[in-house]
């Protein structure tokens, strides 16, 4: 099977230039002018930009949480992703207490295999760090899994203590595995939440007030210090505030192997959104919580200066009508998480590139190239380059779109970005050379997405 995409403008993390792209057997075989030779399929990209398909390295599909389960599975979540120009993702496989990491991975493979539309990988969240589980980290690369996640918050379910985090970092380092950390001080947060409930402070806005930024900054600094001492690679997920950015920057300035991401929603919303009328604020409950405008400004600056190298979604979708309402009368029972897998590329492009905050090259780097490199997919995914998988999105810089849950494609009943008008959107999505979305129409079969075996040393 060969395809040539002709007449478009290719965008990579390094530059933007006119070029055709030739694809043979799903892999990019040439990028250059006048490649229109014999091919099974010719795609006219005149007036379009040809970008690497988005890679979202932080998602929670079909994840049990807060007594319910995230509402997007590996079909609906992938449909939303593909519609938004995302062609691969790395999801969190959560170790059930008592299970081995291998057994946890089997569970997540079963969720994905028959449904997948885009390519997928897994990070394993170590939630029950018994000695034999810590030992098991060394076996993960053979299973194609080269990153683990450790939670410093969510006591009683996901949180592990400092001793376990330190051991995980050390074992992961020795195995060439990257450790991801959810950095919030879970013990202090439990104390603050219990106090709020005792005082009758039950509304969604107390979610943000009981998870103050100092407790994210402190935990970020603690994890970074451990990583620095061990020389262990650390990736801080969902950085939301100035203090945490300072800790990351400090560690980086000393040469510590610390990298970090932010997530789309922290760039657009603030703690004020938790105080919307009625129970609407519950739609914005995620952890860490939404912060202040000054934090948003600091996050954009960090995306520009490289302190943050990735924008992911933390797509963790709970419907408002049946799931967020579990926390009516008690904010601690609102399922934590917000959706964004479909909107990420469009809203970041609009606010970032159209808004003059980042360049088109930075947009490509943040959404595809840097996540690929960091997560063991460099040279395989995330770039319009010879030898890479032909995961491509044809982007129309001029096309406008109003985001609304009514026309989104996942299982969600709301969008954070409801009513937001964006300019620039995907009009075609290709995965390994195969068109999977054509002008808003899905043309891929469930089960056609593949598991990505990732390399160590990302
Ligand atoms: N935060 C969320 O908002 N959802 C998933 C898990 C997390 O840490
Ligand atoms: Zn988290
Ligand atoms: Zn107290
Ligand atoms: Zn998450």
Automatic annotation (TrEMBL):
Gene3D superfamilies: Metal-dependent hydrolases (3.20.20.140), Urease, subunit C, domain 1 (2.30.40.10). GO terms for molecular function: dihydropyrimidinase activity; metal ion binding. GO terms for cellular component: cytosol. It comes from the Bacteria. Keywords: Hydrolase, Metal-binding. The keyword Hydrolase applies. Its EC number is 3.5.2.2. InterPro entries: Amidohydro-rel, Hydantoinase/dihydroPyrase, Metal-dep_hydrolase_composite, Metal_Hydrolase, Metallo-dep_Hydrolases_sf. Its cofactor is Zn(2+). Residues 50-435 form the Amidohydrolase-related domain. Pfam families: Amidohydro_1 (PF01979). Carbamylation allows a single lysine to coordinate two divalent metal cations. This is Dihydropyrimidinase.
């Amino acid at each position: 099977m060969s395809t040539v995409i002709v007449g478009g403008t290719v965008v990579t993390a390094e530059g933007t230039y006119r070029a055709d792209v030739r694809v043979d057997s799903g892999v990019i075989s040439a990028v250059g002018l006048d490649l229109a030779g014999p091919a099974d399929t010719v795609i006219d990209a005149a007036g379009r930009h040809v970008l690497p398909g988005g890679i979202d390295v932080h998602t929670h599909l079909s994840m049990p949480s807060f007594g319910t389960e995230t509402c997007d599975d590996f079909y609906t979540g992938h449909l939303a992703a593909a519609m938004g120009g995302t062609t691969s993702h790395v999801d969190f496989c959560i170790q059930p207490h008592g299970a081995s990491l291998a057994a946890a991975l089997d569970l997540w493979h079963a969720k994905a295999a028959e449904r997948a539309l885009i390519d997928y990988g897994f990070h394993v969240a170590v939630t029950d760090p018994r000695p034999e589980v810590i030992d098991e980290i060394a076996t993960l690369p053979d299973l194609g899994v080269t990153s683990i996640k450790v939670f410093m918050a969510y006591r009683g379910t996901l949180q592990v203590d400092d001793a376990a985090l330190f051991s995980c970092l050390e074992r992961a380092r020795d195995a060439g595995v990257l450790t991801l950390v959810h950095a919030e001080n879970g013990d202090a947060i439990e104390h603050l939440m219990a106090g709020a409930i005792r005082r009758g402070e039950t509304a969604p806005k107390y979610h943000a007030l009981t998870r103050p930024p100092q407790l994210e900054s402190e935990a970020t600094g603690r994890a970074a210090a451990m990583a620095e001492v061990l020389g262990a690679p650390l990736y801080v997920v969902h950085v939301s505030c100035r203090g945490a950015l300072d800790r990351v920057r400090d560690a980086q300035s000393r040469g510590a192997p610390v990298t970090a991401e932010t997530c789309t929603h922290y760039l657009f919303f603030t703690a004020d959104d938790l105080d919307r009328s009625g129970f609407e604020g519950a739609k914005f409950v995620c952890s860490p919580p939404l912060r202040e405008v000054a934090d948003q400004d600091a996050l954009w600056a960090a995306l520009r200066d490289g302190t943050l190298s990735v924008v992911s979604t933390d797509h963790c979708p709970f419907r408002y009508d049946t799931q967020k309402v579990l926390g009516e009368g008690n904010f601690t029972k609102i399922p934590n998480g917000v959706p964004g897998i479909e909107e990420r590329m469009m809203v970041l492009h609009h606010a970032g590139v159209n808004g003059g905050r980042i360049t088109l090259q930075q947009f490509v780097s943040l959404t595809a190239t840097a996540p690929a490199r960091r997560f063991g997919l460099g040279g395989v995914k995330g770039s319009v380059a010879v030898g890479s998988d032909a995961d491509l999105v044809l982007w129309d810089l001029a096309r406008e779109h109003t985001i609304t849950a009514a026309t989104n494609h996942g299982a969600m009943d709301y969008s954070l970005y409801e009513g937001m008008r964006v300019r620039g959107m995907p009009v075609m999505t290709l995965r390994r050379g195969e068109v999977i979305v054509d002008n808003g129409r899905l043309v891929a079969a469930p089960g056609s997405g593949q598991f990505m075996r990732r390399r160590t040393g990302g």
